[in-house]
Amino acid sequence: MSLKIEHLVGGYGQVPVLKDVTFDVEPGELVGLIGLNGAGKSTTINHVIGLLRPFSGSISLDGMTIKNNEEQYKQSIAYVPETPILYDELTLREHLELTMTAYGLDKKKAWERGKELLKTFRLDNKLDWFPAKFSKGMKQKVMICCAFLTDPKLLIVDEPFYGLDPLAVHELIRLINRAKRHKTAVLMSTHVLDTAERYCDRFVLLTNGRVKASGTLKDLRKQASDANASLDDIYLKMARDGADD
User: Fold this and answer.
1) Can you count the helices (H) and strands (E) in the chain?
2) What is residue 2's three-state secondary structure?
3) Which of 34, 73, 90, 156 measures 20 to 30 Å from 200, CA to CA?
4) How far apart are the first and last CA of the chain?
5) Do residues 220 and 213 make contact, with C-beta atoms less than 8 angstroms apart?
6) Per-residue pLDDT tens for 1-34?
7) What pLDDT sits at residue 65?
8) Is the Cβ–Cβ distance between 196 and 190 less than 8 Å?
9) Which stretches within 103-215 are classed as H helix?
10) What is the 3-state secondary structure (H, E, C) of 80-131?
11) How confident is the model at residue 240 (pLDDT cuts 50, 70, 90)?
């Protein structure tokens, strides 16, 4: 399922943060959304997941818009937020069961996937724990388990590496790659550019609510007129240029 964002203008209240943003994410592709703080990454994500409505422009999954197909649209998406959001009164087991219910999953099959995910992130012996006992990294792992439990058509991950230990980062990347093989479209916002450079298929660089550049690393190097530049080099140059716009 492909994500298409076309001429998106949006933001909070009456103030546009995004100004004519256009890009897409194809099935089986990992696209890195990068930019300085305040560039519009989180605002873009909030529009895609339906927390904000566009002032103008459109967002669609294979032609399905949130406006006309809200329930089906949202159930096609899984989201891992930058800051874990858990319910203090629910155990880990109950968080997984809540996810299964919200997405209408077959519980037997979902628990098979859930047990595999819990074992991967070393949470399989913590099913009856409450969030108060979890570290930030453990809370992030719970969010990851809930997201991958749904077998989404579009996966959105926002700064997923903060708080994760190196083994968990490796496992998350492995899961993302497996999702790509199953034709899941993946949009990832991150400041960890060396990891993004290794694993993303394409990049979208936002500055001041606009798409400053997009494409493969080769495309970005061409736009930056530097055939050997790293993603970090390109990011810093274009971000600085964007600050002067």
Assistant:
1) 9, 10
2) coil
3) 73
4) 35
5) yes
6) 899 999 999 999 888 999 999 999 999 999 999 9
7) 83
8) yes
9) 107-120, 136-149, 166-181, 193-199
10) ECCCCCCCCCCCHHHHHHHHHHHCCCCHHHHHHHHHHHHHHCCCCCCCCCCH
11) confident
Is the Cβ–Cβ distance between 218 and 62 less than 8 Å? no
Distance separating alpha carbons of residues 237 and 231, to the nearest angstrom: 10
Rounded to whole angstroms, how far apart are CA atoms 151 and 98? 15
Token output for 38: 């305040």
Give the β-pairing of 15-25 and 3-12.
Answer: antiparallel
Sequence-distant (≥ 6) Cβ neighbours of residue 170 within 8 angstroms: none
Superfamily of domain 1-76+153-161+184-245: P-loop containing nucleotide triphosphate hydrolases (3.40.50.300)
Backbone angles phi, psi at 149, to 5 degrees: -60, -30
Domain map of the chain by residue range?
1-76+153-161+184-245, 81-151
Cβ(49)–Cβ(156) below 8 Å = yes
